[in-house]
């Protein structure tokens, strides 16, 4: 086992104990590889980014199940592929379910929100904002900068004076905590 492989094994072991620096190191090391892989598959930056975030989220949640007889990057790519396949299946299923009626055609022809749609959106946004307020302030800030101010990771990193990978991990963690809050609601 060479030195870099030994170092990676140490980092993975630290991540298994919940070490945030180890998580950040793994994210830093493999982000571009997973993102590039998904960008080639999806040809869509937003989908590639979403899948990459989901990949690391799932990998970090399940890091205890990682089998060191496989390369870590192979394990990440396998998770990433499965998330992409699930996303494609869900989109196909949604299209098939809606194509059975003329509603799909109506939605394409008139995508302007109805009064009811606007009301539901406002109510959902109010609930979401209340849920975001339950997060710690540094998680609230990163969520607001990314999704309400629509800032890039680089811009957020500059605004917060933090490395971009810290912003990515913080956003990943914030989204996970927010999802847990929403599920409890």
From TrEMBL:
InterPro entries: RNA_pol_sigma-70-like (IPR039425), RNA_pol_sigma-70_dom (IPR014284), RNA_pol_sigma70_r2 (IPR007627), RNA_pol_sigma70_r4_t2 (IPR013249), RNA_pol_sigma_r2 (IPR013325), RNA_pol_sigma_r3/r4-like (IPR013324), WH-like_DNA-bd_sf (IPR036388). Gene3D superfamilies: 1.10.1740.10, Winged helix-like DNA-binding domain superfamily/Winged helix DNA-binding domain. SUPFAM superfamilies: Sigma2 domain of RNA polymerase sigma factors, Sigma3 and sigma4 domains of RNA polymerase sigma factors. The keyword Transmembrane does not apply. The keyword Transcription regulation applies. Residues 28-93 form the RNA polymerase sigma-70 region domain. It holds the Pfam family Sigma70_r2. One of its GO terms (biological process) is DNA-templated transcription initiation. Keywords: Sigma factor, Transcription, Transcription regulation. Residues 132-178 form the RNA polymerase sigma factor 70 region 4 type domain. One of its GO terms (molecular function) is DNA binding. Belongs to the sigma-70 factor family. ECF subfamily. This is Sigma-70 family RNA polymerase sigma factor. It comes from Aggregatimonas sangjinii.
